[in-house]
Amino acid sequence: MGGRFNEDRVCEGLDRRSTAVFREKVSGAYRDRPELNRMLDQLREGDIVTVWKPRSTRNLLEIVETINQVGARFQSISEPWADTTTHAGKMIMTIFAGIADLNVI
């Protein structure tokens, strides 16, 4: 993709494999994000949530916990460590969650 992020190009690639694409236009700093809420409402067991880049690690961990509770999985395109579709990714996410519990991040 070159050095610059192209949202449309990423979404085009995902559209071929996806049943739904949610494009959030609200800053990740806000708790109330309409597209995030809509995605979480539609989330089902076995789904895989793919994002370009997570913003806040603490917020990411909260969202991934919600995704896991439904029986779905999570992966980030630009942050390969944030991937609950692999054993290594699950381990890394567990470590980050433990660190977050200690209020380190």
From TrEMBL:
MF terms in GO? DNA binding; DNA strand exchange activity
Instruction: Please give one Pfam family short name.
Output: Resolvase
Query: Which superkingdom heads the taxonomic lineage of this protein's source?
Result: Bacteria
InterPro entries xref list? Resolv_N
Residue ranges of domain Resolvase/invertase-type recombinase catalytic in the record: 1-105
Task: Name it.
Answer: Recombinase family protein
Q: What is the protein's species of origin?
A: Tunturiibacter empetritectus
